[in-house]
Every structure is written in structure tokens, then in C-alpha cells.
Amino acid sequence: SSGAADADGDGYISVDEAKALLDLKQRVSFLDVRSPEQFDELHIAGAHNMFLREFPRRLAEISRTDFVVLY
User: What pTM did the predictor assign?
Assistant: First the structure.
């Protein structure tokens, strides 16, 4: 880890911290937890959609090696 993410250890990162991960070419995956319809309207380039209600049955799909950002 670069130390750039979650500097205060509260489990949350700012937009600037997320951008720093991308800028530093860190292994980062963005998961958009909104509905598929909302995701289709607008999302971060390269993000994956995993509707929050689907999390329990889709946990195995989440990377165990990347820094994962939920939004």
C-alpha cells in the first residue's frame, strides 16, 4: 500500500485519496454499489457495478489483491 489511502484509518477515503491511488498506478478496483440503472446513466470509467443488495451472494467476485473502493 502507498499509504495514500485511508490516512486516518476510519475506512473511508476522500476523492483526492482515490485519485492519488489511480495516479500512483496502484492496484485499485472501483465498485459502484448503485442500481444497474443508475450505473448505466453515469459511472467512473473502468468501474464495476455490484448493486449493494447483491453483495452477500457476489462477495467472491471482489478482488482480494486490489485496493477496493466502494462508491
Answer: 0.74
Strand partners, 61: none
What distances in angstroms separate CA 67 from CA 8, 16, 27, one per listed residue?
A: 16, 15, 6
What gap in Å lies between CA 50 and CA 38, rounded to an integer?
11
Contact 67, 30 (CB under 8 A): no
Q: Which residue in 34, 9, 16, 18 sits closest to 66, CA to CA?
A: 18
| Residue position matching grid coordinates 447483491 | 54
Sheet holding 67-70, edge to edge: 48-49, 28-32, 67-70
Q: For residue 55, is pLDDT > 90?
A: no
